[in-house]
């Protein structure tokens, strides 16, 4: 593990330890491969006769889901196919219509995609022993987030507080969900906070908030495989895919990239070493 981004969050006040982890959901803490939103987005567009590929659905993963749908409709291929099928370009009202279909469909299936990623519960428990508070942000709305909170609690993962785009007034890559959680957790300065996620939008959210940004390369959107399919890869295939994901997250500005949240400890150790060096 090495520091990838030389920019250090501003030390507006003396701090020598990490005080909060802000964790993403699908692909980071639950839903290995971030499968739930992809499958639902594909079903929603199919209702209108438009087939979107998994790669297209994953392109802007991490955004608030209405924003994600709007972004898909701006894609030249999808926009052209939508116009061919519907007879006109998609309007804001149709974005709302698609989003209105997305929410109940995702609510129907989210529980089955809420299994904790291996090592997450233990990693969070270890972070708590260091005095670290746990928050979460998501691209899902509050109703879907509440289902995830209930299901993950049954499996041993309970963040101290959570934020959805509607709670904060905007989703990723804007920083407002993190700011919302900073107030709820009572944690400051940004240099004491670490944001962890598996998408470019997660990294940008953290950077825009002025906190440490850590990418997840092995369990989330960049790989996009179920645990069984990931395990079925040869060692060479797995290494190539993880390396490609790492490069994408690093290019987005991640301070660190790790394969899984299970190995967050070494990142926290390194950050705290840097904080102590900077404050001395």
Strand order of the largest sheet: 3-2-1-4-5-6
Shape: globular
Decide which structural class fits the backbone: alpha/beta
Distance between the termini: 24 Å
| Proportion of residues in β-strands | 5-15%
Unreliably modeled segments: none
The level of helicity is 40-55%
- Rg is 19 Å
Mean pLDDT: 93
**H-E order:** EHHHHHHEHEHHEHEHHEH
Number of helices: 13
The total of beta strands comes to: 6
In short:
With 280 residues, this protein is α/β, with parallel strands linked by helices. The protein contains 13 helices and six strands. The mean pLDDT is 93.
Account of the protein in words:
Helices cover 50% and strands 9% of the residues. With 280 residues, it is α/β, with parallel strands linked by helices. It has a 6-stranded parallel beta sheet with strand order 3-2-1-4-5-6, with helices on both faces. α10 links the parallel β4 and β5. α1 crosses α5 and α3 packs across α5. The radius of gyration is 19 Å and the shape is globular. The mean pLDDT is 93.
